[in-house]
Amino acid sequence: MRWNQLAEDLPRAMALAEVLCGAACADSSFDESERVIVGAMLMKVLGTTELPPEIVSQLATFDADKLNLVDAVARLGLDGDRDKKSLVKVVAEIVKADDKIDKAERGYLSRLAKALGFSVAEAKALLD
To answer: ∠11-90-96 over CA atoms, to 5°?
Structure first.
């Protein structure tokens, strides 16, 4: 799958947004600068210059307490290891965006790796 194909598949793009918002919220905060970073990353990954209004709304109202990471990953429907590794890399970039990586952020990356059936050690290595 090519990530830019998600731009035309709103349910999957929204699942990706959930996963990235969850990464940004892992340290218990999701301020406006983090929303901008997530939005910019989504535009980059989706290959667009503007996010659909549904995703803009999702970024504005995201509630980490309602995130079901396993469900969001399932809705993404990633098949190959290459796509899964790519997602883990994107999430690692979000986690590292504030130049601090705490225990909760490492835990989020571990939960994501498990949800993807991906090596937790390999995922955590992307943070170093």
So the answer is: 130
